[in-house]
Amino acid sequence: MSSEHAENAHSTHSAPNTHRDDDTAMALKILVAGGFGAGKTTLVGAVSDIRPLRTEETLSEAGQGVDDTAGVARKATATVAMDFGRITIHAGLSLYLFGTPGQDRFWFLWDELSEGALAAVVLADTRRLEDCFAAVDYFERRRIPFVVAVNCFPGARTYAAHDVSHALDLDRGTPVVLCDARDRDSGKDVLIRTVEYAGRMHTARLLDSVG
Questions:
Q1: For the range 132-140, what are the long-range contacts, defined as Cβ-Cβ under 8 Å and sequence gap of 24 or more?
Q2: CA distance 31 to 35
């Protein structure tokens, strides 16, 4: 990790989720979560306007008894801290993207990464749908709005959004969208849906609190 990237990531993570400067009126923090191998690093890298920060390490024999690679046997690396990227949605609005590690043993990082987050994207792989249960539960318990984005891997069976919602027992109204994490436009659409949904949720909660 270069010192420049480390400094940029640290300053972004330490800042509030709303930031103002000459170029950007507002910057929002979005988490990208999901199971091991679901495509979090790929999504962040595909949509980021800047060179993404990655903290990937090569999978080793020592982790074979710990990391479940069934269904993703070709995956050779794993995120051990976070991914970081930034995308400008339109003039005046940018998103800071923080990808969470997928393995159980790194979940202690999630509380710090989620600090100040507006919302989250939970990437789902229908071949290993149970892997995103923990992320869904995490955000529901902390009342962080999230969208489930089904990463459509080549050769994987395709399911309708309502079938995925039912299988994950999502709260009514939680959006489920299909995407290709490798495609910038597809990933950007997911992020726009996430911001729109989070905006509606936060507005509804504010109205409830003053009502």
A1: 132/33, 132/34, 132/35, 132/38, 132/168, 133/168, 134/35, 134/104, 134/107, 135/33, 135/34, 135/35, 135/100, 136/168, 136/170, 138/33, 138/110, 139/33, 140/171
A2: 13
Phi, psi of 153 (to 5 degrees): -70, 145
- pLDDT of res. 25: 78
Average pLDDT for 35-64: 79
- pLDDT of 162 strictly over 90: yes
Q: At what angle do helices 40-47 and 184-210 cross, to 10 degrees?
A: 100
Mean pLDDT of 4-25: 46
| Nearest alpha carbon to residue 140 among 149, 150, 132, 129 | 132
Nearest Cα residue to 159 out of 173, 178, 174: 178
The angle subtended at Cα 131 by Cα 152 and Cα 192, nearest 5°, is: 50
Give the total residue count for the chain.
211
**Pairwise CA distance, residues 124 & 39, whole Å:** 8
DSSP summary character for residue 32:
E
First CA to last CA distance, the chain? 49
Question: Could you tell me the two tokens for 180?
Answer: 């290709």
The pLDDT of 155-162, averaged and rounded, is 91
pTM of the model: 0.78
- Alpha-carbon dihedral 118, 91, 200, 109, rounded to 10 degrees: -10
